[in-house]
Amino acid sequence: MGLPHHSPPTALVSQMCLLKSYSACLREATLQLPHFASTSNRKRRNVRWCSPEAAMLHDFHLPMRSLEVKNRTSAEEIKSLRLVTAIKTPYLPDGRFDLEAYDALMHMQILGGAEGVIVGGTTGEGQLMSWDEHIMLIGHTVNCFGGLIKVIGNTGSNSTREAVHATEQGFAVGMHAALHINPYYGKTSMEGMVAHFEAVLPMGPTIIYNVPSRTGQDIPPPVIRTIAQSANMAGVKECVGNNRIKEYTDEGIVAWSGNDDQCHDARWDHGATGVVSVTSNLVPRVMWELMFEAKNPLLNSKLIPLIDWLFREPNPIGLNTALAQLGVVRPVFRLPYLPLPRARRVEFVNIVRELGRENFVGDKDVQILEDDDFVLVRRY
């Protein structure tokens, strides 16, 4: 007597049919290499196409944009800023960010009259940061100080892809505006510059940064005139000189001086809105007076020895050394930056005493640090 025969359940039959169909599909949809008439007359095998569950669209990009109301500002508000500090990034002994020292420095800038800060710029050593660090610091600054000061994130890059991605993230964490440099090292054409900037301008208020001494390539006026048609184009941080600034301001294009030693004349004689300053890290109130009070050649001349000292070596070497000697930040340097030699450190102490310690940030007495006082971090 044979075993009793039972029909499989209907659901199981359906699953078996689906598996057979899928198996047949896999067998028939094998990789087909091209057959060329010159080498083979064989007919190509007919392959039954199986529709995938989802289609993939290549090179399809939508802006990562939120329409919710944030603390973001308009380009017009950015255009009015007279004193913007390129803020220093302090470090802990292991090379991580010293957020307590950073916050204290931010408070000093706000009390000193700075209306905006560049976060992660050249002065803030954005070039030594990972993008994770970069965006975190922008977000931290917005969260703590975004209601008191305009936060401008340096999200520029020589890679358009990186610039777009970082700018999306910067605005997502609440920065008020972006700072963008032209592609450096792997330089591009004028048309390429325009395309690069036009890829990021739609995301929010933007300042273009022209510093040929670092990028190796000038952003010429025709490029600026072209992108100035964007409603998000706030203006240019210009380091070429005051004649270039005058050229822009005569045409109604907002410009900030990127050179502390020229900013007084740029503001009062060449139409600059103000300055994006390194020196204001040290003497924010004095820089505020230069930009707000009135034309003051005497005060400007008193600052020139400090400015010359700061920029004798590439920025931010002098600033890092100065802030450490003022006791505002720990004497920690991320390589490849090294502190100034001792003779220059002594020179800084004399400059502080000449200008008056009360004009500088911090409340500790300025001191001459010895070589062993500095921590040099190579892995961070």
Primary descriptors:
380 residues, alpha/beta, eight-stranded parallel barrel, two-stranded parallel ribbon, 10 strands, 39% helix, globular
What fraction strand?
A: 5-15%
Please compute the radius of gyration using only Cα atoms.
29 Å
Number of helices: 14
Q: Summarize the amount of helix as a percent range.
A: 25-40%
Residue-averaged pLDDT: 89
- The strand line-up of the biggest sheet is 1-2-3-4-5-6-7-8
Tertiary shape: globular
The computed structural class is alpha/beta
What's the end-to-end separation, in Å? Answer: 80 Å
The counted number of beta strands is 10
- Element pattern in H and E: HHEHEHEHEHEHHEHEHEHHHEHE
**Sheet with the most strands?**
8 strands, parallel, barrel
- Given as residue ranges, the uncertain stretches (5+ residues, pLDDT < 50) are 1-5, 22-44
